[in-house]
Each structure stands twice: as C-alpha cells, then as structure tokens.
Fold this protein.
Amino acid sequence: MNETKINLLESLKKYFGFPKFKGLQKDAIQSVIDGNNTFVVMPTGGGKSLIYQLPALVQDGMAIVVSPLIALMKNQVDVLRGISTNHGVAHVLNSSLNKTEIAQVKRDIEDGITKLLYVAPESLTKEEYIEFLKKQAISFIAIDEAHCISEWGHDFRPEYRNLRDIVKQIGDLNIVGLTATATEKVQEDILKNLGITDAKTFKASFNRPNLFYEVKSKNADVDKDIIRFVRKYKGKSGIIYCLSRKKVEEVAQVLQVNGIKAVPYHAGFDAKTRARHQDMFLMEDTDVVVATIAFGMGIDKPDVRFVIHYDMPKSLESYYQETGRAGRDGGEGYCLAYYAYKDIEKLEKFLAGKPIAEQDIGNALLQEVVAYAETSISRRKFLLHYFGEEFDEINGDGADMDDNVINPKKKIEAKDNVKKLLGVVKETKEEYKSKEVINTLIGKENALLISHKTNKQDFFGTGNDKDDKYWMALIRQVLVAGFLHKEIEQYGVLKLTQEGKEFINNPVSFMMTEDHVYDEVDDSSIITKGKSRGAATDEKLMVMLKDLRKSMGKRKGVPPYAVFQDPSLEDMTLKFPITYEELANVHGVGDGKAKKYGKEFIALILDYVEENDIIRPDDLIVKSTGLNSALKLYIIQNTDKKIPLNDIAKSKGITMDELIKIMEQIIYSGTKINISYCINELLDEEQQEEIFDYFMESENDKIEEALEEFDGDYDLEELRMMRIRFISEVAN
C-alpha cells in the first residue's frame, strides 16, 4: 500500500507537475484506485478533476467521464493533451463531432491510446455508443457535476436520472460521483440515484477564505456602479452573471461602449461564437465575460479576480458555484451581488406554470437566496451553515471577508423573543413553515391557521409588538444558531432541534442583528432622477449654469427648465462635459438638446475647468448604449402616423405608464414628438390652453405641483401628456 502511495506522488509530479496533493485529493484518489465506489464533495478550485484524471492515467483501460457541458469537456481535454505526448490520450464524444472525428475517437479507444473519454449524458443514451463501449476495457465511470441528478440540485437535468441504468448496460463498473456544491439533501439524492449508497465519501470544507462577499441594493444606477467597480480591476479577469440572455447582451454593450473589454456569452449564440468568446477570455483577449449560467462550469481559469451577480440566482448552490469561479489560484476574489426583491418576484412568476412539487422546491430555494441577501450576520457563516458546515465567525479562516462583518449592524438582546418563537413552533406541533409561524406570532389570520384553529390559541398574536420583518430576521438567525432546522422534504417546515428544546427550558442571552432593508429606488418620474449619489455637486459651477440657463431661456422665450432641468445641471457639475458627445451623455440631455443648447454651456464649463485646475472624473461619464433606440424610433414613427397610444403600447407589450415614460425620455433628450391627436380626444382647446399656460409660467415642470395647482381638475395621465406636448413644442 505504501508503495502505491509513493507511486501516486511520483505520478502526480510526472503528469501534472505538482509536488503534493491538496486536502482530500490523495485519499479520494486512493479510494478510486482501490476499486471503491467513491463520492467526492469538493468546492470549485479544490482540485476535484484530478481525483478521476490521475487514476485514469495510471490504471489499465479507459475511464468514462460524464459531464454536462461541452465547454467543460473541451477545456479538460485540452489540458490533458498538453501533459501527454499522445494527442489521443483524451477525447470527447458528443454532438459537436462529425463522422470522421467520431471514427478517429473509436480507433484511438480500440488501440488503447485513450485514457479518458468525456461524454455528455445524452450521448450515452445512444444505442450504438453503448454497444461500442461494452466491448472496451473500462477502468471506472466518473459522474462530474453529480448534483445535476437531484431535483434539489441547482442545475437539475432529467437525462442524469437514467445514468445508473446506462452504466449497468455498459458493465459492472465502479462509479465516482463528484460535485462542487451540494446540501445534505442533494448528497443523499446523488448516492441513492446512482445506486452507490455504499460509496466512500470525501467531503472537503466549503470555506473559501480568499473570497470577499458583498451584497448591494440594486437600484437605477447599477450599470454605473458596475462600470466603476470593473475599472478598478482594469486588465484583470471577471465574470458578470445575468439571468436573461437579453440582459447579458445589454450589460456587455454598456461595458463595451465605456471602454471595457467585454464579451457576452449565452446558449442563444451558435457554438462557434460561444467557443470564440470563451477562448478570448481564457487567452486574455478580453477582460470580462457577461454570461448566463451557461458559462463557466469547469472553466479552469485560476485568476478570475471578481464575480458579479447582476441578478440574484435561483438558489444558494448556484450562487456558491458561480462565486467559486473567483480566486481559484488562492489570490483575491471579490464576489459582488446586486439584490432587489422584485427580481425574486419575477423568478417566482416563472415558477408559476410548473408542476406543484417543482414550484415548492423552487420557492424553498429562492427563499434561501432572499435570506442570504437580507441577513446582516456573517455571510460566510450563513453560507457554510446552508451546506451543513459550522464556522467560527470570530476566529475562522476568512472571518473578516464580508460586508456584514466589516460594517456590523447594532445587536439587540432577543432572549425572550427567541423563547417565544421556539414556543410557537412547539405549540403548533412543528407543522408550519416560517410564514405561518410569523403570522401566528403577529396575529394575522389566514385559511391554514383558521383550519387548524391556531387563531383561537392563547399564543396567537403574542408577538404583535414586532413586525413580520423582525420575526423573519430572528428565524434566520435562530436557524443558523442551530435551535431550529428546516425540514427540506416538507419544503421548509420548521422543526425544533435538541438545542432548541433545551433553550425553551433554559433560555440564555441571544444577541440578534436586524436584517438589511433594501429600499427600492423610486424611478417613477424620469424628471426627478439623475443626481449621482455619493458625489457632491460643484455649488459654484451650479450657480453659473443656472444663470446661463435663465438668460438663454429669456432669449429663446422659454422657461429656464425647458432649456435644461436641474438634474441635468447637477450632472454637469459632476461630469464637467466639454464636448457635445460628453454633454449628450449627461442625464436627460441627449444629442438633440446638446446640439440645440449646448454650445454656450460647453464653453462655460471648459473655462471653469481650466481656471480651477479641475481633474475631470472620467469614470463618471458612463455612456449609454442607446439600446432603447429601436423602440423610441418605433414610437416616434407611429405617433407621426397618429396611431392611438393604447395600440402602440399593446403592439410592444408595454403599459401606458411605460409608454409615457419613454415618450418623456424622447422629449427630454431634445427630440420632438407629436401627440396632439391623442390629447384632443382627452381635453378641449380651453383646457389645453390652461395647462399650457401653467407650464409656461411655472418655475418647474413637476407633475406633483401641477396636480396640486389644478386640485383634481386633471388627472396624472392628462398632465403628463400635456407636459410632453409643451416640452416638445417649446423646448425642442
């Protein structure tokens, strides 16, 4: 046995050039070589692939590696061919090959040259491949990304379900299951479905101490925030994940027009484009890949310095796996996620059409994502608890590597409320999920509580001195503390642990922190939006710009705000635009306004910058891609044709409110739009004149003030449409 171990180390050096094994690698490899069914749970970057690659290279016969992604296979085959003098040492067998290539693969296998054959699960369902593989000397079969077999896994694939039967058809083979992320429930599923409940299991720590975790509120300035962040990592590699293909392309374009080397990647591109973009990233011809989760599984790029989640993923397992692509070389890895609850609501809507069991699983997983985003305890502790691992948030490795630890929220004593909470779980016979427990505490009736007569119990409403958010925060922290656990089989029903039962009898101090509250940014009015948060306006320049605006308004016979609005002037004092192109990128300006009114403003700002030796903050000048230009053009063309606004909105699948918003953007950037034909159906000539005169004499064009002035004579839509007509005719 000792000699085999020495040979293993020699083989490691010979094939891979590594002087020693990492973590559990050696024991797991030995288990495979000894002919055991083996199950490995090891985080991304832990050296998981070596566990089947090395045994395959040193043993007789060929190993089959089942993998879900062509990109992953290609990447690993390239690496293996690089360490061998024989090109045929590793092959893929999947839909990307033509007949000639398939024939070559088969020849190399029959000649005993191939040591590792990578196949997609779909390929293994083909009768001709099964018949061919039956006749070959197979050392073992490795199932990579094994979480795909479980409905509770973040990347469930139905074709993985049949793997056990297919393996049996090929022969009596040892199975090696590997995954980079799995909760205890998923691990059970994998072992059961592969028929390897006897497997030797190797589970590494999920802690990645070099990764920094941060969650930010997702607001209207998210693109600007990302550009600033990426510019700090100039020349370094990063991945930005979005949930939709459309958003991938939009974000990639925004980065590109702002001088960042970025490419998009999603399953909608043809295989050639995907491969090209992936290679550009690996070869460092581009810095950033903006992608759906179709990208990155098994991408062996060790120096990814940041991973950004533009949208929160569908489960914490997805989040963990995707963030795990940062810092695989042990160096810096920054994991930044943008969170807005409305994104979660969108994901819940997507689940609505699915079977009930699938909906329940999906919603249970989504609520864990919400809990992670909103928690204010150590994010590392929260994540590791989710994967069944304890973490010391004071002395643990990487304890200070998250936003909640660096900026801790105030803690409050909650001993009595923990006892109250655990008492309600006990009294309701441990049958309720978090929502029902909270409703019981705050005294909010619903059909379920009424049917169980919970609303008639003495404890109903005993926690109504606190709101639902407080109780949700407490439940999350009590779960992490180990007093409660979620019964996954029943989609999140809360059960008392032994520690929880002891706490009820002997309560001790429990310090809780309140959850983050991510306020949604109200962007209902494009007029009031615009001031870049976190930066101070130049008050002296602001006064000068207002004076110029006033004198120009007089000369042109229009109110000052019809030249440029306050938010536009504020943005000018932050960005100091000195060309027409830069002025067109100021909030609420656009090409039309820049050309019509810009000359004197540009001259004034240029003089001011030179006189005061101002260093202009280039990173604040975030260019727009004009992605809505096609929609805007459609609206302009159709209003010219006098098509009813309701019909325009319906044809583009947008609401009337959204249509008015876009029309406001059009006119505030200096382009005329004619909607008089619609207004004539709403208001008579006298009413129109009254509103027109109001806007001409008013100091600003705020709709709230107009509503107040007319005291219910006109509704919001009428006033907004009249404002569009006024700005279009007077200012543009």
In short: Confidence is low (pLDDT under 50) at residues 1-6, 520-535. Residues 376 and 408 are 7 Å apart (CA to CA). The domain at 539-620 is CATH 1.10.150.80 (DNA polymerase; domain 1). The chain is about 50% helix and 10% strand.
